[in-house]
Amino acid sequence: MLNLPGIYIEGAWHHGAQPLTVINPSTGQSLAEVAGGDGDAVACAATAAQAAFAGWSRTTGAHRGELLHRIARGVEARRERLIELQSRNNGKPLAESAMDVDDVVATFEYYAGLAQALDRQQDQPLALPSEDFSARLRREPCGVVGLIVPWNFPMVTTAWKLAPALAAGCCVVLKPSEVTPLAELELARIIADCGLPDGVFNLVCGTGLAVGAPLTSDPRIAKVSFTGSNAVGVQVMQRAAETVKGVSLELGGKSSLLVLESAELELALELACAGGFFNAGQMCSATSRVLVADSLYDAFVDGVKARAAAIRVGDPFAGDSDMGPLVNQAQYQRVLGHIERGMHSGARLLCGGKPLEHAAGYFIEPTVFAEVPLDSALWREEIFGPVLCVRRVASEAEAVALANDSEFGLVASVVGADPAAAERVADQLQAGLVWINAPQVIFPQAAWGGYKQSSLGRELGPWGLAAFQEVKHVVRAV
Ligand code: NAD
């Protein structure tokens, strides 16, 4: 079995003392052992990053942009390898892993452009209501940052944090998910070849307790950008409070797809299945609640049942697989537990609801429940698996009210052929991103993040860059 170093500090790879066994979720077999780190490794990484910050923070945006372009080109050059590692370790079909790699390239390219634009924007004068003073505005990197990412879109989540952090001039300590470090390690090797000064980019693989917790506490870390579960996000915020660190959080969701009266049925079915079953439903943005206008409900239920049952679940490397396994045994059992409780909640199972027969890995059939009670865990909690809940709604107002009745507010989808109605509904939804008649397209230029307990702050776009910057005003008496 492969034995990989799991620590990269100051330009050198190291084997840490905390072994992580990485598995292939399609088979349940071990793929590699990664020698991860602990609090000592975090301390070394933070020291190296702090030492590198003095020089890196003073480089021009143009220079940092050139290095980000280089990373994007390096990722493109190793595209096939990254796709393979992502599918092997995470279980996504190859086509989904390819989308992830393309997203990583687009994100590095976009922030390369923003870094280059920074030089022009620096030292802008600020109009003051007094002629006795002049003022200029600077945007400076906030310091050494800790980036903590989950396993569902590992490289993508990393790119959304790493590219703007480097563009801003921050030095970084990255902690990949202990479940999916393989593509992240390859990404780190690509970055290591791109000529960043030693200590600017550091990585420590390990568990949340061994690495994530000390990273969150370390006084040298100015900011933590975290994506993961709400339970851990709250712990990160609490720990970060001790040293008054900045925190960005991207957490869970329980999002809705609203099928309006005017919706074209086939489009609604296609978007409902994509929103529920892409990445085996392991998406913070899964639109796992589907609210269907009364007039379309019966046809929708028949259609979604047929479409979900036709989804080909299987080996991510087989060209004809639409959906792979769940990421590991813990997630598989968690989702099966949700389904089991759902069966006793009063909801009606339309299809699926069980593991895929004769499969060694963590495969679950696409599952659809109808008439899901509003107070059930199925309706209220994030399931993070291939489970859709469908409900009939009597009016647009009821659909909006049910969609907004959640502690989360990440995204929403609206399907309807009447543009005025679709836009009106979108405006009323408490969600950071609303798609109308569109799949879940994400552009680095547009913000990512949600309302309520889904997020604190925004990633992507200029907001993603601002999250790693401090604002400084220099005011001078003239
Ligand atoms: P998780 O919270 O278990 O772990 C996320 C990361 O935090 C991992 O790297 C983990 O090792 C680390 N961690 C665990 N305990 C820690 C601690 N005490 N201190 C610091 N770090 C710690 O989440 P997961 O199971 O990997 O991912 C699934 C969750 O992520 C879901 O809830 C999903 O909604 C959320 N998610 C949100 C977004 C978004 O953009 N809003 C995107 C992807 C995933």
UniProtKB/TrEMBL annotation:
InterPro entries referenced in this protein's UniProt entry, alphabetically: Ald_DH/histidinol_DH, Ald_DH_C, Ald_DH_CS_CYS, Ald_DH_N, Aldehyde_DH_dom
Keyword Lipoprotein among UniProt keywords: no
EC number: 1.2.1.3
Domain Aldehyde dehydrogenase positions: 18-474
Keywords: Oxidoreductase
Catalytic activity field: an aldehyde + NAD(+) + H2O = a carboxylate + NADH + 2 H(+)
Family of the protein in this entry: Belongs to the aldehyde dehydrogenase family.
Protein name (record): aldehyde dehydrogenase (NAD(+))
